[in-house]
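Continuing from the previous page of notes. For each protein in this section, the sequence appears first, followed by its structure tokens. Read the first protein now.
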Amino acid sequence: MPKKKFDDSKFDSVTPESAYWIGFLAADGCVSTCKGTHRVSLGLQLADEDHLGQFRQFLSSSNSIRLRPDINRCSISVASRHMAERLKAYGVCPRKSKSLKAHYSLVEDRDFWRGIVDGDGHLRVDKKNRIILDVCGAKQCMQQYLTFCKNVYPTNASVRKHCSIFKVTLCSNAAYAVIKRLYQDAITALARKRRIAEHIIANKETLCPGFRKLTSLQAQTIRKEWRPGLLKKMTAQYAVCSATIWNVVNYKTFKRV
């Protein structure tokens, strides 16, 4: 049987593509060792088979994708000690669901976080037409992710316990801003989540009216007139969401006004 080929140096350096796949493997992949064989595996639902094809192409691999219609799964794996060790250096290791911590070189990398969101995130528009972005993972990883999000857009979101792991939920403006940062002009992304992201980005005025820009004069007026209990009235008056008013009042935006 001919030896299967692939490029095991793909994770030797951080590139937009390798950063994405490190994030995606951290969320949905598996690095294991059995009887001295080091293996990197990735399994998804059948609907995402094309994404496995992208991963195989990234690895320049001839390994086949295994299809399991009986359990709605498809998977691919490669045996490589070097690749497994490189991924472990980035935190992708056994039992990572409770111990994962983003490598210092990736904490501000949008491609890495898009990989995490594609694997363990949920993008949606709820019944009230609000944009929601949920991401689950290990506590330290979620704390790092929240810091990344706050650097994109001011938010009062927090890391919360969710079953045996932790969760960060962003809504409305913050969710829109982070989704745009992660997915706009992205090289690699899970197709079904990219479609949702593109819909959200293209319809921001309808889905996220709080992104309508206030003027400096309006910001001054809001601060001058602000009183507890006026939040709902101001959101209607200026046609923005409550977070926009709150950020102006607390000098998180229009800091020099």
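Done with the first. The second protein uses the same format. Note its length before scrolling.
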Amino acid sequence: MLKLPWWRAAAELNTCIVLSADDIKADIKKYIKNIISINFHKEIDKHQALIKSVRFVALDYAEEILSALPALQDKIKKINNVLTVIRVPATKSVEDIVSRLAHSGAEIIHVVADYRGQENNGSADTNRRLAKDIIRACI
């Protein structure tokens, strides 16, 4: 069985992989166009060189992003004209968060479920919604 690094597989399939900015090392830079860099909104300055080379920048959702979203997007666009992805955990309040982000001008909203495609509510609750149901509730 042939084992490819995830970033190389993403490049060969002409798709993208989401990686933390801190995990993107020099040896995988040739696959950078297929990597979505996850940054914390407070670390944009720290990762300017990386932002200059990617097509997408992902920010993990935090409450303060809502009020600062246009300024954060402008700051990122001044570094490189990339699309900004806001990663929102699939929790019980995801519909409200997605709505507020959309009204604030979010370009791409990525609802992040657990590895089973279910809500992230921190418990073994059997009534957790599936990703398809969460997406339906958001539109």
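What the second structure shows: The chain is about 35% helix and 20% strand. The radius of gyration is 16 Å. We return to this in next week's lecture.
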